[in-house]
Write a structure and sequence with these properties.
Length: 97
């Protein structure tokens, strides 16, 4: 079965306090659903118009688990805490098994 990855790129952090509240809830929500963090932080270097903003990559046992985690009540609570505190996008990408 192919693994899946959440790739989260931030365009702008508007409210660091809201981001901190989100992180406090999102970390446990992600890990409880089977996610494993591979990368969390600011890029060491950006190329081709990339933004030097926070990037997070998490690995999941399957695409279904990655999607279910995003839709879970615990993660939705984290998203409510973030509110409009950041502009970002999340992509779920399948990778090799």
């Amino acid at each position: 079965m192919a693994r899946a990855y959440w790739v989260v790129t931030y365009r702008k952090v508007k409210d660091p306090e809201k981001l901190a509240a989100y992180a406090k809830l999102a970390g446990p929500a992600i890990q409880s659903q089977g996610g494993k963090f591979l990368v969390r932080g600011t890029p060491a270097k950006t190329f081709e118009g990339g933004l030097n903003e926070r990037t997070v990559v998490s690995e999941w046992p399957s695409l279904e688990q990655a999607i279910a985690a995003y839709e879970s009540p615990a993660y939705k609570e984290a998203l409510r805490a973030l509110g409009n505190g950041a502009e970002r996008d999340i992509r779920i990408v399948e990778g090799p098994a």
